[in-house]
Amino acid sequence: MKAGKYKVILAVPFLALILVAKPALALIAPYDITDLGINIGGSPFGGSTGGYAINDSGQIAGDFYNAQGTIHGFLWENGVVAELGIPGVASEAFDLNDSGQVVGHSSNRAVIWENSTMTQLPKLGGSELSRAHGINNAGQVVGWAGWGDLKFGEKHAFLWDSTNGIQDLGPSGADSISNFGINNSGQVVGWTFIGEQGPHHYHATLWENGVPIDLGYLDGLESSICKDINDRGQVVGYSHSDYQNDNSGLYNAFLWDSTGGMQNLGTLDDKPNSVARAINDRGQVVGNSWKVPWEPQGNEHAWLWEDGVMTDLYDLIPAESGWEQIDAYDINNHGQIVGRGFKDGEMRAFLMTPTWEAYVQTELDYYMTTTLGDTFSFEYWWEMGQEADGFNLDILFFRDDEWKIFGWDLNFDGSSTEWEMARFMVPEELRGLEMEIRFRVFDFGAFTDPTVYLRNISSEPVPEPSTMLLIATGLVGLVGWRRRFRR
Q: What pLDDT, in 10s, does the model give residues 312-352?
């Protein structure tokens, strides 16, 4: 039985994917988990590290403790680590964009790193300290500047870019403001503190064109804080009851959008508390759940929320992985998750990668919109259902109010044993055009219900001539298969 159709947008490099027609019990990809292995120069804190942000190229920003016990930011890429900051001076890295620009702080000043070169952001008025918490692909940076005590002093939210400099976003009637995230449209999220409403009364706040919008809080709770916003304007964070020093207050993760308002995402099993930390453009949310009273062993569980279902990340990684108390901080548009957890008794930064990004079935098509380049490529793996028989994976584009076949399709017979790559030349008249693309399975058998898994979908400039020859050769074979199985 399949559910009705609806759309979820997913932005990735070169592409914006749209997932349509999820079944009532959608398939959830299992994950591989990787220890980032960051322990620069050794650490007296057992190699304590954490990954806090990941971009769509798979670069990761976070922090670690060095041999002198000083916390330092890092940038990780394909196993290579760059230490961020000045030796002996505390620094942290909180976010990065798709160009690899990283933001955070060094010696209590908001900074931006580019190609490992650190630049301090201007002070906001006479502010004494500052943090940069978010950056978008245009290089706009958000954070806060403060006066007095780091935890309880007055804070003003700011927006900075290289053209307009630093702008004060508050407090404008509030006692204190801080922000954490910015999307590629320049929408900013964070929180506003209204002291007269109580000592710990925060309001989740969205800024559009510099104007703050109070998002409210969940029913039965008293405060709320925004943590992230995606390019669809969906906001995540948490709402909580009156703050308690013994951690006995109630926290619930939320998802907000302009049409549905604030939605309670729920919690995991017997853990009544949850916070949401990040959301990607597909609408996948990651966060953490725990229970009170605090139990150090096994109390915290990270989760992935998608299409109304919250899944414990422990259920998605190999049982023998050895990881404990994992905590998720960010998720990119490929579904990769970063955070920290304990392994072999040490706090370690991790990367979780889904084994696939999308899937197609007989009654479940996969749609995407993209500006087409010279080539279109993806990796695929498939498995049959009952009564295995041949089937096609058709690739179509939408133009002139109708779906048209690209002239590409793949034929399958039996199940696969490994991932394979498909790469096709895009017709010249379609290059540079934004197109809606559709993956569709045509099943030749009765009740076969095959599943094709997809990953690393992209449309890119033309490859080297030697690769072009291989593509052309492959297309000849594909055309032959198409004649055999054409409907």
A: 999 999 988 999 889 999 999 989 999 999 888 888 899 99
For the record, the structure tokens of 102 come out as 């990283």
**12-16+25-354: what fold?**
Neuraminidase (2.120.10)
Contact 302, 277 (CB under 8 A): no
Contact 134, 141 (CB under 8 A): yes
**Domain ranges across the chain:** 12-16+25-354, 372-485
Beta strands in 162-296 (DSSP E): 165-168, 176-182, 188-193, 202-208, 211-214, 223-229, 235-240, 251-257, 261-266, 273-279, 285-290
- Check if the beta carbon of residue 413 is closer than 8 Å to that of residue 387: no
pTM of the shown model:
0.80
Most confident of 255-259, 380-384, 422-426: 255-259
b/e 158-184 (16+ beta carbons within 10 angstroms → b): bbbeeeeebebbbbeebebbbbbbbbb
Residues 24-39 have pLDDT tens digits of 356 788 999 999 977 6
Element (H, E) at 409: strand 402-412
Residue type, 291: K
